[in-house]
Amino acid sequence: MLGPMKPELMDILACPVCKSHPLQLTVVEKKGNDIVKGSLYCEKCKVTYPIEGSIPNLLPQTK
After folding, report:
1. Which one, of 34, 37, 38, 42, lies nearest residue 13 by Cα?
2. Who has greater pLDDT, 42 or 4?
3. At 50, phi and psi to the nearest 5?
4. Do 38 and 56 touch, CB atoms closer than 8 A?
5. What's the predicted TM-score (pTM) here?
6. What average pLDDT does the segment 11-30 reach?
7. 3-state secondary structure 8-30
8. Integer angstrom CA distances of residue 11 from 8, 23, 24, 61
9. Residue 30: pLDDT over 80
C-alpha cells in the first residue's frame, strides 16, 4: 500500500499495465513534500492515473 504521494516515489513507480518507467508527473496541488493532487502519465500506454488526496490511483483503467 502506497502512502502519501511524494516526488521521491517517482524512482520506483511504473505503469501497472506495461511496466514502463518512468511515469510523467504533473503536480496540481502540493502541501509540504506531499503531492495532494495531480497525475501520473504513461507515455507508452497513453494512460493518465490520477493523484487525489495525496494517494496515486494506479489501478488499471477499464474501458
Report:
1. 42
2. 42
3. -75, 155
4. no
5. 0.86
6. 94
7. HHHHCCCCCCCCCCCCEEEEEEE
8. 6, 9, 11, 22
9. yes
